[in-house]
Amino acid sequence: MSTEIDTAELGEKIVKVLKSIYDPEIPVDIYELGLIYDVFVNEDYEVKILMTLTTPNCPVAETLPLEVEEKVKSLDMVKDAEVEITFDPPWSQDLMSEEAKLELGML
């Protein structure tokens, strides 16, 4: 019996959760905005998410990372989740997906 976890499947579930979280100032989810830099899953089903905010003094700087952690932790397969905020590289509109740019009328 294989003990290897299906990280691709879990990754998709995590992305789905991330796409349900919106930046309060921009009507686009944080994933499409490009705020998620990386998602790591280890063999113990512990998730680490490296993300940024649109600005260092973003009004949701306190609450958004907690919301991300809680929603990811709510997935059955996830044992623990931790969000690390980074401003390196700083977020820019270049990181937004085509979908987000389209949504905001930037294309």
Automatic annotation (TrEMBL):
Organism the protein comes from: Formosa agariphila (strain DSM 15362 / KCTC 12365 / LMG 23005 / KMM 3901 / M-2Alg 35-1)
Residues in MIP18 family-like domain copies: 12-85
Coiled-coil parts of chain: none
Gene3D superfamilies: Fe-S cluster assembly (FSCA)
Protein name per UniProt: FeS assembly SUF system protein
